[in-house]
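User: I'm writing a short methods note and want a consistent example. For FAD-dependent oxidoreductase, I'll paste the sequence; you return only the structure tokens, no commentary, since I'll be parsing the reply automatically.
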Amino acid sequence: MRESSTEVLIVGGGLGGVAAALAALRAGRKVVLTEEYDWLGGQLTSQAVPPDEHTWVERFGVTASYRALRDGIRDYYRRHYPLTEAARAWKELNPGAGHVSPLCHEPRVAVAVIEAMLAPYRGGGRLTVLQPYRPVGAEVDGDRVTAVRLAHRDDPGDEIWVAAPYVLDATETGELLPLTGTEYVTGFESQADTGEPSAPSAAQPMNMQAVSVCFAIDHVDGDHTIDRPERYDFWRAYRPEFWGGPLLGWRSPNPRTLEISERSFTPNPGDDALRVRADQRRNPGDGNLWTFRRIAARDLFAPGAYASDITLVNWPMIDYMEGPVIDVPDAAEHLAAARELSRSVLYWLQTEAPRPDGGTGWPGLRLRGDVTGSADGLAQAPYVRESRRILGEYTIVEQDLSMAVRGDKGAARYPDSVGVGMYRIDLHPSTGGDNYLDVPSSPFELPLGALLPRRVRNLLPAGKNLATTHITNGCYRLHPVEWNIGEAAGALAAFCLDRSTAPHAVRADPALLAAFQERLEEQGVELHWPDVSGY
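Assistant:
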């Protein structure tokens, strides 16, 4: 078996892992970054989820390096795509003119920009990327992780041990936590444990948010109907108790009010893409599902460049609620079923979905696996909203940021803040049968204590596996927050190597904490919010 060593090992190449790597590399450290899927970027790329961002994202509330990623995506379009003159001049270019974010774009563009951000460090020899590799074991000495065993995704016999003084878990599901014996929690905590008003009386560790397998489609001439999925009849008849009708339908609960509402679907509606101003504070934007997460608006490109808009299907009807995919023996079966649900949704759209003109089905809907980079046409990876979460020195709870609890006081202000974020507390239907929980949040901070496991000394979470609860995970799981979590973790590992100290000591020592926060601010990490109110 091969062996290797580095200064900072980052397992998982999603947004948190990439941000962690960049932070450690900027500080002069050697990094090994691993990723299971073909693309770096996680939810932005291999999971095909356009960014969910807050209302102030174009002005403040994200780190400088996340802004560089966003600027790089726009610059890539201006350099390489046949934009119209008006689109090219649009300062805050939204290539998809989608309503979920002011920067809806094709996943492959984000891959190119991320690779460019990492390229100088690869060339300089300080960054090694192991891809596609996944963690399968670990070596632990007391309260320290000494090495992680990684296996090639397609050839499990190809394994490598990587040793490092700091190990960051940036996997989508906190894979290193059980492998290293790091204490963690899953699912819904009890109200007795957290004091959260929205928590149940008893803990529900297997009650987790639905996973989704996204996919991209366009609408062109011809019949592009896929083969009928084997269990299509099951999903066609599937009716969650609280849904207001079959899952495969236009009617579903409004996430914010829980009232049953009907969404529309109009491929290539001919709207004025240049007039789209995505702001979820004013409008969730999901009225017409075609434009909700549209990632290419054909009218922003030269005539004929795109035969159709391209839209990304991450809609309520693809949420898989039949069972969790973490810490269960049948996780693979559930993930396969989630993929079949998504194929069933596409087949329903092509054959049976009610059209505004009274007809049924759009056979011209075409699966765009070339856009998502996968063999079966769906996203390479499932979108897993909820990870295993460390038991941390500090746990972020609903009372810290819920506007229903805090009123006009704003979110809790942490003396050990290492970043900021903003999103509503947005929980999708769960494997325990819960409906949406989508309530206003105040702009919040990221406490260092939530990145520190209570016992393990040198393992740091670098994504959704920090010490949130089931409830607060709902707003700490989004793209810019995950990036900030990873950036803080990577910077912390480098800082500790520079100072010959330990992460827990940084939080405990006011002088060390101030020095670390100063370093973060020098790198463009915002630690506190200006006076803005939540939504």
